[in-house]
């Protein structure tokens, strides 16, 4: 589940990820942040150009403004239209950048479009430093047309080079106005609009010459203008707009004409790249200058100068910093080697960067939970997060009633948590792991990993533990509640689940050990602050999409209301989602949306939460979890729990977590006469909290670490209710000793399927690695047998990522540690390691066995497939392809043969790397895509398309120089 929290868009990510795509700013069309979240920014970390991001006061004003439909605009004559556009904001036209019959009619009228261009030219002549004369709205209406024209043949005339030239007179009028300069807010915004318009159309050498003065002014007075948000945005907009055209929008003859003639435009960029500010507030400017130095260097009169600047930058800027990596990427991508002839090895740089920023590793639960952290995080911080996960997990399972994973063998069998020291260091995640950092944290279900950073109270109203709890809920949702991988499947279509998943994450983040689930003051504070201008209904929330303002908070309130006052509704929703019954889910949402009693109750709950704000707090784990538990007999602990909770059919399990062990005890509780499912749940919830409190009253201090939940509701033959009840807590090592984390230092050897191999681990050789080559898709089982039965374990890695585990032992049979995984063709590595402190040798036997997997067969992409002639396939619709692009591999092409008309859905899910997308072409028209991503939720990019008989080519391509691992699914609707 690729979900991000607390959006904070960085300019570097916008710039570098947009231009490289070679597309007309699809991601920026509505000028919305790239993140899937719109949480309020509580502490701005630096000046970042969040384009068209409205303040709360602006949002309040916009909410009161009249909206104008495109169908209404179509009824106006051209003079009426341009006069209206001059007076209103583009935000009052919700259908901009959306293709429908009305927008097609609007932009098909060439005279209408020309009248807007003419009006823009006239306003360009007449604007002043305080009156923009409607330029911003004119530009956005035009940009909407160019954007739609790129994706829809009906409007493709807008993209014809000759038609794009029609904008030149307007550009020249704007840039020749005496007020076209950095200065007032209005002036800066006009420059920003000009840059955006250029990015969607074209630019001439004369206009570039005028823009050079703006670039020079900004660079010469950098100390002044870099502190001005609007001025910085203006500089960036011009840089990006002209850069986009020069990279993607000129033919060879135009490029020849411009080469050597725009040094005045490039010089300020080169200077900023070479002498940029690396402070947290301004480093994004330096990053962008370095990026465009590489991309535009060929236009300079001395074509070697850019590489020279980038080479110097790698020596000047701090090693492993953003500028250092940006310069290295540009050298590798553009020149292949630096000015001294040295090759750049980005993959090795990433490995070293991870060691630099994430040197610590902490392992819990026999390797099932792994933390990789910066050096400033303490062991205490990490252990608190581990125990926070247990509190959240307990309350989550109580509510959903299930603790069995929905699919086995998924990457989330091992949960990896990556935590950087600071928000600034978190920005390096884009370089090291390939995931954008315009968020406060993000969980990637495809790798079973979430990423975040430590923060101070000055940097965020949300603590690290709050963020961790939120993201951990997403892990639980994906593993136990929502079928399939995040974003895939019908249940995710049409934005069905944002309110459920994000509101649920905010809700369960308030979990406690013995006091249920509390509303967090931080979230209720957001509602209290927003209540004066937002008036969401329950129906609004159940249909909220990513980008809806404050929907995290209001969705939390809706789920909190259901939990406290209407548990049956929440349970029905949980059940339909877990059973993947989309039709039943839609029926429930439709029914609940019309229910007046739900709406009344929801509004009352909102008022109650606001009234209770001052009395609320933020639930965090207690210090009891950190105490060293007294050495005691585990059998006595199990006996006491069984007695207090009156359990039968008790089973126990133990796992090692380095400095301590943990236990899990499962049993059956049979209660009194059933009063109905939901009354029985309330009684069991009360009883379970009572069990925990009674245990805490006993003398052993380890009971203060015990959490509990119950699942699998049923009634007995004699009408009594029953649940499976689970307890989890902390144990000391029997001898009271402490252990150290494994420190693998593997040596390669090979292992063959079905053939046992032996090894020995000892203090001088604490780990051993075995290479496993898999030829076909199979369900594989790894089995390790030891004489001692403990102190040794194993982890499995795929060759594409030697740092993140994908399987580990999840079953113990005597002295055997067993785990399984779904393998695809490729190379895997099994690492055996010791986690104890004993000095003796630890011999073991390792064996991997397998059989043909009964699960869906993946088609493994094979190289070379960079052209239609080399395309993999033809493949049938219904195939799921697994592929990767590394180094200079920029695209993969797959052929699909269609025999009959049918409606299909294509979904791309990047598992590593973010700068990747797809397009579908019909063999009869290789120049125009017939389909491209229409629905973007998190990392998932999907669209529907009605295919006809013939051959289609699916292009999966990357637009950032990074390693990409992905799956792309085609299926019938």
What's this, in brief?
With 973 residues, the protein is α+β, with helices and mostly antiparallel strands.
Terminus-to-terminus distance: 22 Å
Structural class: alpha+beta
Helix content: 25-40%
In total, how many beta strands?
28
CA-based shape: globular
Q: State the strand order across the main sheet.
A: 1-5-6-4-3-2
Count of helical stretches: 32
Give the radius of gyration. Answer: 30 Å
Biggest sheet features? 6 strands, mixed
Low-confidence stretches: 1-64, 735-748, 852-857
Structure description:
The protein has 973 residues and is α+β, with helices and mostly antiparallel strands. Among the domains are: 67-229; 253-344, no CATH class; 627-731, Threonyl-tRNA Synthetase, Chain A, domain 2 (2-Layer Sandwich), CATH 3.30.980; 757-852, Jelly Rolls (Sandwich), CATH 2.60.120.380; 858-972, Jelly Rolls (Sandwich). Helix content is 39%, strand content 20%. The strands form six sheets. A six-stranded mixed sheet has the order 1-5-6-4-3-2. The protein has a six-stranded mixed sheet with strand order 19-21-28-23-26-25, with no helix packed on it. Helix 16 (283-296) packs parallel to helix 18 (322-335) and helix 23 crosses helix 24. It is globular, with a radius of gyration of 30 Å.
